[in-house]
Every structure is written in structure tokens, then in C-alpha cells.
Amino acid sequence: MGSIKAGLVLRNANAITLDPHRPQASTIYIDGAYILKTSSKDIDSKLAGSATQVIDCRGRAVIPAFHDAHCHVTAYAESLLNIDLGPDSVKSIKDIICRIKAAAATTPPGAWIRCAGYNEFYLAEKRHPTLRDLDLATTAHPVKLVHRSGHAHVLNSPALALAGISGRSEEPPGGMIERDLETGRPNGLLFGMGPYLAEVIPPVDEAEIDGAMSRAGRMLLSLGITTVQDASQGNGPERWNRLLDWKRRGLFPPRTVMMSGVEEAKRLSAGQPLNEYDTGLLGGAVKIMLDEVRGNLNPPQDEINRLVLEIQQSGRQAAMHAVEETTVGAAIAALEYAMEKCPRKGSRHRLEHCSVCTPVAARRLFRLGAVVATNPAFIYYSGERYLATVPREQLSHLYAMKDMLKAGLRVAAGSDAPVAGPNPLKGIFAAVTRLAENGCQVAPFQAVSPLEALRLYTIDAAYSCFLESTLGSLSRGKLADLAVLNGDPLHVGPAELKDIRVELTLMDGKVVYGRAV
Ligand SMILES: [Zn+2]
Predict the structure, then answer these.
(1) CA distances (Å), origin 30, targets 53, 99, 366
(2) CA of 411 to the centre of ligand 1 (A)
(3) What percent of the residues of the chain are helix, what percent strand, and what percent coil, each to the nearest 5?
(4) What are the tens digits of pLDDT across the range 444-487?
(5) Ligand 1 centre from 323 Cα, in Å?
(6) Ligand 1 centroid to 169 CA: how many Å?
(7) Beta pairing class for 410-413 and 8-11
(8) How far, in Å, from the CA of 502 to the mean position of ligand 1?
(9) What is the separation, in whole angstroms, between the first and last Cα of the chain?
(10) Which residues neighbour ligand 1 (ion) by CB within 5 Å?
(11) How many angstroms is it from 348 CA to the middle of ligand 1?
């Protein structure tokens, strides 16, 4: 090793390595894509030559790059095509009208204007916008607004007409058309009509999606995220090929682990080689959706058991979407069933979200060697809604990071973008403070330490998809994926965690965001 010189050295770093052998370091030697060594001494001339590039971190915190263990890449990209009406961008319906007016001025008449992220809770008027508000902005363009939850839409008059919704329209199953009390005419506000609207509103075109993927990739890298796991249910060979194409064209650089649906997974492993290491596209778990429909488990328990056993026997990893206490229970029961029928260690089956998790459930999951991929940032983005709607006895088990860690579980964090924004520091803030955006606090006793929160987004996220030997900590021999921050997450006040910014991101030993000085 005496003759090897590092191509790149980070010095004067306050590195939080998450490597138990050297938790802190000040110098990181990088050779090609890999970390050659971390050290608490200044540059060693034996490891750095005249050709070595040196980045002076000036005492900045350096962490392993973030890893989003559960998101929806293409849906997130498509969400970037929308005008952002989130609480960071608008404060009132008046603001919304202004934003749409401005967009209308540069959009050809007749073309759709798509907006997303509004939340009436944070609007000065404390109500949903209606068609009357949107018509003030433009009637020359169809306008569609999506609520941050995705469950409500507002359309202006032209959009409503194009969607074929009138006073005589009947509600589709699960949908609700709000109507003016006096005239009976739709007021533009629609609930639960997403699937219906998806059929009648034209999709965005390919070139626009290419652009959006590129923006999404750059956005993730700017947040220090170099690996994402795509948990979309419909993922199969078609999505694999699209992702591969975007990656080969350099449009979406973050390393991507693609989960797939049960049937799609069979077509994938039968038809094509998985794991394109060069392009950074890897195959992930087999996703199963568990739902509760009017008090009934969907699919029923014996069907879940059968699916999980099949995955267990195939040697793959199952990822069960389970939110409610009942679905979490059903997922655990299925894992216990499969483990008994076909004992196999190290399968690391996953629960996605695991939103309501009692200490008993956490201990059962631990005994099964299961992993949880949960969503700390939901507390930040939806905390006030949880306080208002989740029954009291469940609230104390909501996103129960502390109980899960106490049970010994490995817990990974995902943003579920576009459901919530992808910034991991908002999630770390919420995991540590249990505070929502509006300042209310959700089950404070479930708070974890900043170091524990950091692990959720790095080493344990890597563990959740079997990548912990190459990613997730700043350790010799691992890939040089790291982020330089403008604040030290272990030492700033908890309130400041959410405002820490990424200054520099390295992936595979190369600067992919920010400027190295
Ligand atoms: Zn999801």
C-alpha cells in the first residue's frame, strides 16, 4: 500500500464516519471510486502526491452520503413539473392566484397548468381554493391543483369541462364532487378523484419527463442523496428499461435500487440480467401492498402468507407496504408463517412505513430479522393532521422510532417522495424533535438522538437493501459517497437540524454537487 497515492483527499474534516472502528476522522483519502483510508491525523505525504487533489473542508461536518430507502423516482420527477404551491412558496389563496397568473403568461393558451402541494391548513384563508379563485387566474388554460395529500384536487372551469365534470355528473366510487349549495354546480373541489382524473387528463409528454428526471437527479444530489430505493408497486421490466435508459443517457445519476411487484419480479428475473453496477441500477425487494378496505384485509391473510412464503422460498427479499396496526400485524404474521415453513436466516424482509408499531410488534419483527423502512419526515409534514385524526392510543406508536430501536430493529428512513419532500435533514429534524412544521409535537417520547437519526438515512438504509458492505459509512474500502454539510448535526441545536444544508456531494469519489475549493 506504500506506493498507492490517493487521487483525492479531504482534509480538515469533521467527519462523522458511522464506522465503529473510527467514528471520527479529519482526513479522508480517496482512490478512484473508493475510500482508501480515514485518519485523525493531517495529510500523510506517503498517501498524497503532487497529483493528489486536496479539498479543505475547513472544519465542516462530513457524513456518508444520504440514502433514501423508499421513494418513487418517476412520480417525484413528474411532481417537479408542477408549480409548487407548498407552504414554503405560498401563504394565501391570493398568492396561489398570482403564481398561476404568472405561469399563464408564459404558457400557450389551452395547455394545462399543473400545480401541487397546497395545504389549506397553511393558507391565510384556512380553506381550499375553488374554481372561482382559479378562474380569476386564467380561463384560457385548464388548471389543476393537487392537495399535498394527493387526495384532493381543484380544477378551474376549463379543466372541469375537459374532465367532463358538470352539475349532472355522478360521483365515481370513492370520489366526491363538492357542489355549490345554492346552484348545485361543482365548485371545482374534488376528493378522492385522483384515479378518475388520471384517466381523463392527458399525461405529460416524454421530452418533459426526460427534463424532469434530470432535475430530480440534480435535486437529490444537491440534498446529499446518492442512492435511492424506488418502491413503486408497478415496477417491472418496462420501468427497469426506462430507468436504465435515463441512467445511460446520464439524466438520472443517483444509484437506484428498484423494487418490483410480485408478478413483475418474476418477469424481471426470468428475462434479463439484474444489477447493472456500471450504470448504478440494482434490483431490490419484491413489493406487496397490504391494505385495509372497510375493515377487511386486502389481500386476505392466507394470500399474504402464500406470497411471502413464495418470496422466502425463492431466496428474495419481501417488502410489505403496511401502515395501520392491522396491516403491520398481518405482515408480521405472514413473516412468522414463512419463517416456520421455510427457515432461512438473513432474508431481511422489510416493512414499508410500519406507521403504527407497538413495542410488541417491534420485538416480533426483531426476532424475524426483519427491517423497517419508515418515514420520519411525515411527522414534519403531516404532524398536525396526525394529532387531529389519529386515535390517541395509536398516536403513541406512530413512527415509533425509539421503540423500534429499543427492540434492536434496524430501521431505515425513506421520504416516500413525492408524498413528502426528499430532504433527509427535515426527517432527521423530525426524528430528533418530533416536531411538525407548525410547531406541534407528536409522541415526543419516540424521539431518537441525532446520531441514531443519521444512521436511518445512511448505514441502515444501506443495510435495508444489502448494500452495507459498500455504502453507508466512511470506511476503508467502501465507495466514496459523502456529503459536506454547513452544520454539524451532532452539535447544532435540534431546532437548527432542518436548516443544515449540503455544500458538496461526492458519489463514487467524484464531485456531483457543489464546488470543491
Ligand atoms: Zn411509497
Answers:
(1) 10, 46, 36
(2) 16
(3) 35, 25, 40
(4) 999 999 999 999 999 999 999 999 999 999 999 999 999 999 99
(5) 10
(6) 32
(7) unpaired
(8) 25
(9) 28
(10) 231, 416
(11) 19
Distance 414 CA to ligand 1 centre (A): 9
As a whole number, the mean pLDDT across the chain is 94
Identify the residue whose cell numbers are 379543466. Answer: 159
Record the cell numbers describing residue 310, joined without a space: 413464495
Select from 7, 14, 117 the least CA-distant residue to 51. Answer: 7
How much is the pTM?
0.88
Ligand 1 center from residue 3 Cα (angstroms): 48
Which among 515, 510, 517 has a CA at the least distance from the CA of 226? Answer: 510
Closest CA to 87 of 427, 355, 380, 503: 380
Q: How remote is the CA of residue 420 from the centroid of ligand 1, in Å?
A: 10
Question: Could you tell me if 287 and 259 are in contact, meaning their C-beta atoms sit under 8 angstroms apart?
Answer: yes
- Find residue 227's DSSP bridge partners: 67, 255
The most distant pair of C-alpha atoms in the chain lies apart, rounded to whole Å, by: 84
Q: Which residues contact 206 (CB under 8 A, 6 or more apart)?
A: none
Task: Please give the distance, rounded to the nearest whole angstrom, from the Cα atom of residue 426 to the centre of ligand 1.
Answer: 18
Q: What separation in angstroms does the CA of 66 have from each of 50, 56, 225, 422, 448?
A: 31, 21, 4, 10, 18
What does the angle CA 60 – CA 61 – CA 66 come to, to the nearest 5 degrees? 135
Q: What is the pLDDT of residue 251?
A: 97
How many angstroms is it from 304 CA to the middle of ligand 1? 19
* Ligand 1 centre distance from Cα of residue 308 (Å): 19
Which residues of the chain, if any, have pLDDT below 50?
Answer: 1
CA distance 230 to 241: 14
Distance in Å, CA 202 to ligand 1 centroid: 24
Q: How far is the CA of 322 from the centre of ligand 1 (A)?
A: 10
What is the model's pLDDT at position 202?
Answer: 85
Cα gap 148→73, rounded to integer Å: 17
